[in-house]
Amino acid sequence: MRTVAIAARMMCAAFGLMASFTLFIGCALGQTGTEGATAAPGTASVSAEPQAAGTIRGVVADKTNTAIAGASITLTRAGSAAVQQTITDENGQFAFAGVEAGTFNIAIAAPGFTAQSVTGELRAGESYTVPPVTLAISTVTTEVSVTMSHEEIAEAQIKEEEKQRVLGVVPNYYVSYVPDAASLNTKQKFELAWKTTVNPITFALTGAAAGFEQMQDQYGGYGQGAQGYGKRYGATYADVVTGNFIGSALLPSLFKQDPRYFYKGTGSKKSRVLYALANSFITKGDNGKWQANYSGLMGSFAAGGISNLYYPASDRGAGLTFENAAITIAAGSAANILQEFLIRKLTPNANSAAHRQ
User: Fold this and answer.
1) CATH topology for 54-135?
2) How many Cα atoms within 13 Å fall on the side-chain side of residue 274?
3) Global pTM?
4) Bridge-partner residues for 73, per DSSP?
5) For every residue of 49-102, which 3-state class applies, written as one string?
6) Most CB contacts within 10 A, which of 58, 149, 168, 320?
7) Which of 290, 175, 307, 204 has its CA nearest to residue 246?
8) Domains of the chain: which residue ranges?
C-alpha cells in the first residue's frame, strides 16, 4: 500500500511539473507574440474627432444708435447650402449657435432701411462678434400717376387761354395755340362767353366803337349828344352780347362745335391766309373733325336779326340783318389773319401756354 501511495504522489508531482512548464511556455509565447507584433504594411492609426462648432453674434442699430428690433438676419456659409435665419431682439441683438468653422456671410434687412451684408471667417470653437451694423434709412421713390378727365383738361387749357392778352391787356380768349386742345362742354362754352362779355376791355372797346359811330353819325335816328352816344353804346354792346352767347355758346352747344380759332402757325403765307379766311366758314367739331361752321354763321345772322329790336326804325329790316351779319363775318376773317401773323407776337403768354400743354 505504501508502494502504491508513493507511486501516486510521484505521478501527481509529475503532472504538476508538466502543468507548470506548460503554463510557463504559454506565457512566454504570449509575451513574445505581443512584443513582436507589427502593423500590417500600408495601415495607419486615424483620429476622426470633428471640429468644434462656434457661435456668431452681433447688434444692429440705425444712424442715431437706436437698436433696430425685428431685423431679419440670414447666415450662409461658403461651400454649404445650409441657411440659418433669425431676427434681432428688442435690443437689436442676434446670435447663431452651432456654426461650423469657415467663411460666412450675414445679410441684414429691415423695413424702411437699406439692406447690408457682413462677411467673416469663423475658427473652430470660436465665439465671433460681428462689428456693429448700422443701417441707413432707405430712399423711397414714389411715383404717382394722375389721370385727368377730358373736362379737367379742357378747364386747364381755358385757364391758360384766359391769360392770353394782346399787349398784356386785350383779352384773346377765343384762340387756342394747342392744335389738339380738348373740346369744351356746354358749361365751359357759356362761361367763356360770359367772361368775354363782362371783361372791362370789352366795355372800353364798345365805348370806342360807339364814339366812332357817333363821329360818323351812323344810325342817325339815335341823334347826337350824350343820349345819342348812350343809345349807340347800348346797341353796340347788345351786338356783343348776342354775338357771344348765340354764336359762341348756345349754337356751338347745340351743334357740338368748338367756337375757338385754332392757330396754324406753319406752312406758307398763302396757306395760312386761306386757312384764316376759311375758318369763318368751317370749324372744329367737339369730335375734333372739321365741319361747316353752322354755329358761327347762323349766330351772325341771328345776332343781326335781333338787332332790329333796338336799332333806329329807319335802319331796321333785312338790310340791317345782312349788314350786321356780313360785318361780323368779315371782322372775324380779318381777326383770324391777324391771329396768324401778328397777334401771337403781341401776346406775352401765348408761347408759354402752348409749351405747358
Assistant:
1) Immunoglobulin-like (2.60.40)
2) 6
3) 0.57
4) 86, 108
5) CCCCCEEEEEEEEECCCCECCCCEEEEEECCCCCEEEEECCCCCEEEEEEECCE
6) 58
7) 307
8) 54-135, 150-356
